[in-house]
Amino acid sequence: MESKVKKVAILTNGGDAPGLNAVIRAIVKTGRTYGVECYGFIEGYRGLLDNNFVKLDLSTNAKDLISKGGTIIGTSNNTNVFNLKCVNEDGSVEYKDLSEQCIQNIKNDGFDCLFTLGGDGTQKSSRDFSLRGVNCIGVPKTIDNDVACTDMTFGYNTAVSVAVDAIDRLKTTAEAHHRIMVLEVMGRYAGWLALESAIAGGADVALIPEIPYDLNKVVEKINERKEMGRNYTVVVVSEGAKPKDGTITIKRQLDEGKGLDNIRLGGVGEKIADELSEMTGSDSRTTVLGYVQRGGTPSAFDRVLSTKYGTKAMKLAVDGIFNVLVNYKDGKMGYVSLEDVVGAGAVVGAASSNNRTIPMDDELLQVARDMGMCLGD
Ligand code: F6P
User: Catalytic pick from 120, 144, 146, 261?
Assistant: First the structure.
């Protein structure tokens, strides 16, 4: 079958996640099968703007990628080319739409399609480019698992495994010292990573952004455990969790530009540990898992998922199906329009606001409750 594309480019954008290189590998290998040349823009949309790209070659720069963490073509998480923050020589700040420059680069370089590997922000720009005539295919990456229209992003499974390993370890030291152990995990405004790792690790409490918490409920759980002779409790808290009638805990407010998520979350774990100590009289400690959740080698599951994502992405391009996100739904690979991913009518250049959070009727929540896990409500 004649491929509809001959020369394509890949970019990886936003925070990295395990499996990025495995997706690149799968795209390039499938491209070889169908006679498609692959290139990579360096550092995400920044490389697209600067027209900085390399040829991806399976015998040199793109070899041995299945297990490699990070991304061989780099990433950028503060480049919204539709509304880019530019600082003039006199220090004044201007916001510019530089997307036309990117589109010209793609045309001049002769790329028939752009693969955008990234989370919600990346897919928002991908959709914005697709509206301006660029053939885009998105691949959903993030350890947060919060991209709309797909059941699982690549990188998520690895992050869950890292968090579960931490819970296993925290449990034994918690038991030894009769402590309340609070583990803060990532996930932004979605609780997938916290809830699934809490279930897999056998934690006693999971606090997630979708269910504003009441610490009195957590104290009840701690006391119930004490009555059963269990003088320790493991609490997993998502960085985006917030108290009932309260707000999320912000570590830093950045000013990196418009249409970007400038909020760095963090600190809720410490806050909860202090409050629980005060309320119960028990000793507590906090562990903030941080970037180990997204660094390093992907799990076997993520290697397979990433390979499926990459092959599917290239096959869509070969078939001439563009402006879609490759998705994984009900155990099958498919695709969905980028417009559906960002939400119909989303404004070009604006931030993405269509995150996939845990629905209140999700099976995982019921499983947690049936197991007696406290969800803070
Ligand atoms: O989206 C992935 C993620 O790791 C979040 O879980 C976390 O809040 C954020 O990125 C941290 O991003 P940064 O790399 O900007 O510190």
Answer: 144
